[in-house]
Amino acid sequence: HSLVSSLSGESGLPANLRLPPNLIGAPREKRAPPTTSDLPVLRKCEADIPAHRTPTRTWLESLISRDSEHLGVVDLHPDVFSVPVRLDILHAVEVWQRNFKRISHAKVKTRAEVSGGGRKPWRQKGSGRARHGSIRSPLWRGGGIAHGPRGPTSYYYMLPMKVRVQGLKIALTSKLTQDYLHIVDSLEIPTPDAHYLQDLMKHRQWGDSVLIVDVGEEFPQNILQATASLKTVNIIPAIGLNVHSMLKHESLVLTLEAVKFLEKKLLWHDCRFTPLYPFKLPYSDLP
Length: 287
Hints:
Belongs to the universal ribosomal protein uL4 family. Its main location: mitochondrion. By secondary structure, the chain is an alpha/beta fold. The chain has a domain at 48-99 and 160-270: Ribosomal Protein L4, Chain: A (3-Layer(aba) Sandwich). It contains eight helices and nine strands. It has helices spanning 2-6, 78-81, 87-100, 161-177, 194-203, 221-228, 243-248, 256-270, and strands spanning 41-43, 56-61, 72-76, 103-104, 153-154, 181-184, 210-214, 233-237, 251-255. The strands form two sheets. Strands 1-3-2-6-9-7-8 form a seven-stranded mixed β-sheet, with helices on both faces. Strands 4-5 form a two-stranded antiparallel sheet.
């Protein structure tokens, strides 16, 4: 008990593990949950919620002003934004995404590809030396390599669909639990100046990196110009949202349309079934 109490705060850490004062920022204040809010519920879940579960609620914000004024409350589906967090699934999906496009170009020559070595170096018997048939054998210096890399080698493998879908749900749940998930009504900002977006991020304590997600590939012109010069602020369509991008950025900003799109897509996988016909045939059961 004394060991746990001594290491509970930074003062109890060893001297070599303590951070210098200039690297310790101000503590981040979490927003109060909208459990007892008088603001109206501006968005309800379209999908059915099981009787034993309740919708997860969070605030609805706007980007029109720098101040974080809450417009209302948003209901989120608990099967998407309130699932058990499993770090092993997050790690499996992250490793899969990193290896998805990984290709190793390492390649060495075999004894057949090394030039020379066509003549037998000495006769088979009578010389007292070991028998050899070529100076390009793997036994010789400058010879070929046996069982070496023969690139290009792909590290691609397919992760089960249920694991990939669960990884997205866990990442969304983690962002919401840590108060790094922000729901906005739209991506409209009053000015294309990047300093406005930086001040907004600093004032609302969004962190140093932000990932903005909306439905479609066309975004408001002001938000595009404001994020063009910011390396740590990225905009992607909801169809391209992935675990790696969510873990790479500190805060995640979703529009109401993006929330609707993600819930529809991810909840469909909970009740999907293996089709009885080939995938090459047209089918209409996808959302």
